[in-house]
Amino acid sequence: MQNIKKTWIPYLLIAPSVIFLALLFLLPLIQTIWLAVSEGGAPSLANLRTMAGDLNFRLAIRNTFLLALAVVPVQIVIALAMGSMVAKVDGGRETILWVWTIPLGISDLAAGLLWLSILQNSGYLNSLLFSFGLIERQANWLSYQTPIALFFAIAVAEIWRGTAIVMVIIVAGLNQVPKEFREAAEVFGAGPWTRFFRITLPLIKPALQSALILRTVLAFEVFAVVYALGGTNMPVLVGEAYTWQNQNQNYGVAAAYAVLIMVISLAATLVYLKAVRVDPERLP
Amino acid sequence: MANIVIDKIKKTFGSFEALKEISLEVGDGEFVSLLGPSGCGKTTLLRIIAGLETETSGQILIGGTPVNGLAPKDRGLAMVFQNYAVFPHMTVFENVAFGLRMKKADQNRVKSQVDKAAALLHIEPYLDRYPNKLSGGQRQRVAVARALAVEPKVLLMDEPLSNLDALLRLEMRTELKAVLQASGTTTIYVTHDQTEAMGLSDRIAVMYDGRIEQIGAPVDIYSHPASRFVGGFMGSPPMNFIRLPVTNGTVKLGNMNHAVPASVEREIVLGLRGENVSLAPLAEGLRLDVRVAEPMGSHLLLTGTIANQPVRVILPPGESVKAGEAIGLKLAADRLTWLSPETGLALNHPSR
To answer: Which residue ranges does UniProt annotate as crossing the membrane (chain A) (predicted)?
Structure first.
């Protein structure tokens, strides 16, 4: 009797969270998918067709992928560099990590506005360049006429905002690698780069995989920073979903965008799971 | 093959002196253990020799060449770590081959050296496996094979057996000795386990508080400890220390008077190894009040008091002594250590 009771307890304790997620995540998910592939209550590909036929569709896809491609690798490299550097620090390590993770505590819209204050026409960057005599009048960095500068600005803001989370994961991964592995490699003749690429990097593969998946999924969902800096000058997927939902009041097409983003994120995750395969047999 | 000269090596961490001007010479092909309790500086000294830590002052020569400031890889040494540090993402073969790969050795040499080292350590069946699937003992074999595969001039070992269970430790110890005797590699071995140091070493350097307390052959250190610390640290059970009154240059051991080194006046400390006693009639011998008698099979271990001071002695297994009895002990007069009650240093030590 007691045993039967006990087997139910874990499920009982888990139930609230399962119900909560089912109500507020699974249900809306199913509804969104249905919204995307139906019209007037009947299955239809009309929304998907509208989405694909839209002027901004190709642009949004291109921009989103280019941003992810530009931002994620840079973030991983910077985070690896930060993690490796802080590992060598003895005193003040916690403080450095604390300062580095400040961007984590700032909402993405706030981060976008912060960079707007630097990069807008009357912003800090122009004031600085002007005071050094490098420009004669306020330069425009964020307009639709300067797409490369705008792209660059958004990428920099995204890198600034999103690197901290990658670093946190990578530092946690690096902490799991005993220093003896690196010391053994050093004694047996491996230089600093060899140690990094042949010992450290393979050993933090699980952390690297998590960081890549998380960051890439987030990169495909980029919106607030783009919106704050460029408005609609640089269409991205989530921005299009937002436009269709709020300005065009067309929930079906907005849902189609949402489903597309989800499919892309899932595909990216699968690619990473395959490409950065973590063989449990090769872990410490 | 090379000898090692350690000349007045000092290491401070802030205001803490981890090593106080240590000097030590290790001959070509010799096996020397650094033995001591944790915090005595033995691992720090080993890491300084390896080049993983930088000395505050002093010099180290390997094979006559000063190695201060050289990177570990340029010192011609190999190392075995306490937690093995066998790379989990490489096969056993690649682990053993690692040092040779770093030296850009050609494939034939890598293959032949790995095969040789693997044969020596009996790990041929695992060469294709990942270390994850191996037991602690097998991983440590891989670590030793990795070190020997590069044919180092000097092999450094940092408590290599302490992560193994007792039975495996004994087995690996014997095997390690055989392997290293065969290879003839100069070895410095750090351990806190005195039986390990005794069994393996040509010489033992007993370290305490950043200094070498005594260095010598295992039997010498065991039988003639230079200080109370060494006597108490070496041997199981440890050496007994009994404070005895001195009258006219002698102490009374039972009904015998035993001359002691002249330099002491009122009191002296007798250092007595538990096995250097035999049973004697109570009237003649030194009185031991037995509190606990433990028949250990190979010997009889007695715990009790002599002159109200706690001691442990060992008698042959056949003797029948019971708790609560008082017995007489005859001491092996030529195997006694006499120490100063003030300094704790041995008075009749051959080196003094």
So the answer is: 12-37, 57-83, 95-118, 148-174, 212-230, 250-273
